[in-house]
Amino acid sequence: MDPQPTAIPDDDAHSILVTHSGKSHTFTLPTTSTLSDLRLRIQSTFSISPEYQKLTAPKLGLLKDDDLPITALPSPPKKILLIGSSNAAIQDIQLANSPAAAGLRKFGGTGPIKPAKPVRRVDFTKASNEAKYTFGPIRVLTHLPNPQRSETYLRKLASDPGIKSVMIKHKFSVGMLSEMDPAEHTTHESRTLGLNKNGGEEILLRLRTDAYDGYRDYKTVRKTLCHELAHNVYQEHDRDFWELYRVILKGVEEADWRHGGRTVEGGGDGGRVLWEGEERERMLVEEADGGGWTGGSWVLGGGSGGSGGSAEDRRRVAARAAEERAKKMRDSSGTA
Question: For residue 300, what pLDDT is reported?
Fold first, then answer.
């Protein structure tokens, strides 16, 4: 520690104002002093060794000559800027970078310097596609009970990993995803589960049970959404439509990591994938366009419920449902 300065007569003294990190201090030294003497005084006040001091003076710039007379430096209110790290801070840095500290970190210990966390890489292409190939606003029926639950249901569908995957793959965009009012799309012979207006302008889904006292099975409604997405490309239920629908459905189920994407009939190794075969295709027609799902049982057409009915009965129900849809299509711009 340098000795404290003694009193200096005013006519034999020179004052210098030094600022560092927002703090200022005025040093008074004999006129015979040099820059080297000022550095020692700075060390006593700011705890910064001379070799780590950078001093900048107005009009003189960076001060490098330690033999520079102190009288050559400006007096207050002009300031000299001090840049430098304190001895304590430098010691911490040296300790953190010492071989001992490096060895401690190598074997799992903690040190003053922690390893940087890896930066999460952003896939801008994926983010752009997700923003482009998606659904627009969500609309629910506010006059029915629990509209918040309906909104949550639709948002879950819109963010479903399988749905998002196929929308990006097929470049589907839907203007609005809405809750269908069962009262407006239920007849004695059929219950419309989904509606696609103008090739993707709006998709409506029947979320509620017929009595409005509950909500339909999520996977069933999701399959209906797959059906309506296929109507973005094909209006008629022709071979091209069903081929696209099966591709969409398969893509959704395979991309759904939570369920593995494969639902089979029966148990054991003898089960088969449900999206395969003519029987499955016929059931899909009834499911998406002529039937409903209540309490875990198939309700075909306007019947009283149950899971049965012969294949011929189911075909007749599907035919009546198709006739009903054709009639509705003539009265509106939508495609069921």
Answer: 29
- Indicate whether 97 belongs to any domain: no
From the list 130, 151, 189, 228, the catalytic residue is 228
Among the listed residues 336, 291, 327, 328, the one whose alpha carbon sits nearest the alpha carbon of residue 197: 336
151 and 62 belong to one structural domain: no
| Long-range contacts, stretch 141-145, CB < 8 angstroms, 24+ apart | 141/179, 141/181, 144/181, 144/208, 144/212, 145/212
249 or 265: which leads in pLDDT: 249
Residue 312 token pair = 């011929």
More confident residue, 116 or 229: 229
Tell whether 20 is covered by a domain.
Answer: yes
The reply to whether 54 falls in a domain is yes
Buried b (16+ CB within 10 A) or exposed e, 193-212: bbbbbeebebbbbbbbbeee
**Residues 6 or more apart in contact with residue 148 via CB below 8 angstroms:** none
The pTM of the whole model exceeds 0.70: no
pLDDT of residue 331: 66
112 in a domain, yes or no? no
DSSP 52: G
Number of domains within the chain: 2
133 Cβ contact partners less than 8 Å away, ≥ 6 residues apart: 167, 168, 171, 172, 173
Q: What's the CA angle centered on 67, arms 61 and 70, to 5 degrees?
A: 70
Grouping H, G, I as helix, E, B as strand and the rest as coil, residue 195 is strand
Single-letter code of the amino acid located at 219: K
Q: Is 286 a catalytic residue?
A: no
Whether 165 and 33 map to the same domain: the answer is: no
d(CA 46, CA 24): 10
